[in-house]
Write a structure and sequence with these properties.
The complex is a heterodimer of chains A (233) and B (149). Chain A is of the alpha/beta class and 233 residues long. Chain A is built from 7 helices and 11 strands. Chain B has 4 helices and 12 strands, in the order E-E-E-H-E-E-E-H-E-H-E-E-E-E-E-H. By secondary structure, chain B is α+β, with helices and mostly antiparallel strands. Chain B is elongated, with a radius of gyration of 16 Å. Classes of the chains: A alpha/beta (233), B alpha+beta (149).
Chain lengths: 233, 149
């Protein structure tokens, strides 16, 4: 089931809900985010509504709304989003803090730019590049890592594919370590349900980080998801 | 090749629009010349050529500057001129790229021929040019839907 996240910079959740309900959409507030809704019924595609085109909300799986919440954002924060495109989580961060959004994929970066412009969110800088070549220092980083996506689809994935993603994820975790200030916070997430891409990576990360907490959100009403909070030692 | 540099002027279609722009403007050269402005604080964070950054001001298309919807909304809110308000049915058609008949215009402010197009809630949904008969669609918010989904 899809959800929508209100762009609180432009409209209140109450007004957005009223406007969409007038058009026949049925929304239910999510229990973990008071400006986010489950989309229970759509009489036509919600992406074609003027409210969407005006940037009043972002359409995404409800569990994808969680990682930015784990960042405990403040307006003075400058957050690095390491694999940012197409911008679902980066635009979420930008509603509350400044975000540096990095991604290498050109088509997805076009979509990221378009999402920022559509939502009229201005406190961001986007770089199209390999984040492994990125330099800087941050107190907060979001790493929504490339993964097998087994929390989203039911396709069969081979052990080789899982381990291939694990290698990429570990490179990115190492890079996040390099980019973080001491005691800096890394939020790691995947939309995968495999042990190798999640708990095993936390075991790997624990050599350099305090793994403060992690949680698995099983696939059900929403996509399967894994989120962890790590603090640089 | 994407480049950025600080520039001082942009040829806005409505001269007063310049009053809404921050001092720091960057130009990003890609397929189109795109302009963004930003606060000094954000500008100081730029460490290399960005793909995009800050508030989108607009872009050049065939030699004409097309302002962003955000700047057009701020312009309408601030100066209350150079816009038309159209009825709901026409607004629905307009965001799918259609032109506007004069009979759909509920109110008009300014001399034209360029008019920012607003729906009945005075939300900016695009830009048009009046040719004496119809308001030609120059750009509308449906572009996002047609281009990226």
């Amino acid at each position: 089931m899809l959800g929508i996240r209100t762009n609180t910079k432009l409209i209140s959740p109450k007004e957005l809900k009223e406007r969409l309900e007038e058009k026949g959409f049925e929304l239910e507030k999510l229990d973990f985010c008071d400006y986010c809704f489950k989309l229970k019924y759509e009489p036509f595609s919600i992406s074609s509504t003027p409210e969407h085109l005006l940037g009043y909300f972002y359409i995404q799986d409800p569990n994808s709304m969680r990682p930015p919440l784990w960042l405990d954002l403040k307006s003075s924060d400058v957050v690095l989003d390491m694999c940012a495109a197409p911008g679902g989580k980066a635009t979420h961060i930008a509603q509350f803090a400044t975000v540096i959004a990095v991604d290498i994929n050109v088509n997805r970066m076009r979509a990221l730019k378009s999402n920022f412009i559509r939502m009229k969110l201005n406190n961001y800088i986007a770089y199209r590049m390999n984040v492994l070549d990125f330099e800087g220092k941050f107190d907060k980083i979001l790493l929504d890592a490339p993964c097998t996506g087994t929390g989203v689809s039911d396709r069969k994935v081979s052990k080789d594919e899982i381990l291939s993603f694990q290698r990429i994820q570990r490179k990115l975790i190492d890079k996040a370590y390099e980019l973080l200030n001491p005691n800096g916070k890394l939020i790691y997430s995947t939309c995968s349900t495999t042990f190798e891409e999640n708990e095993e990576n936390m075991e790997y990360a624990s050599q350099k980080f305090d793994v403060k907490r992690y949680k698995r959100f099983p696939k059900g009403e929403f996509n399967g998801f894994f989120i962890a909070e790590l603090i640089k030692k | 090749m994407i480049e950025y540099r600080v520039v001082s002027t942009v040829n806005f279609p409505f001269p007063k629009m310049k009053e809404l722009i921050n001092e720091v403007i960057i130009l990003i050269k890609g397929k189109n010349k795109e302009y963004y402005d930003m606060s000094e604080e954000l500008f100081k964070l730029i460490s290399k050529q960005p793909y995009s950054a800050g508030r989108f001001l607009g872009y050049y298309r065939k030699g004409k500057f097309i302002p962003s919807f955000e700047i057009m909304q701020e312009y309408v809110n601030t100066f209350d001129t150079d816009y038309i308000v159209i009825n709901e049915k026409a607004a629905q058609l307009f965001i799918y790229g259609r032109d506007i008949f004069e009979s759909s215009v509920l109110s008009k402010k300014g001399e034209g021929p360029l008019f920012i197009v607003c729906n009945e809630r005075k939300e900016v949904i695009g830009l048009s040019e009046f040719n004496g008969k119809i308001y030609k669609n120059l750009v509308d918010i449906g572009l996002f839907l047609r281009k990226y989904t």
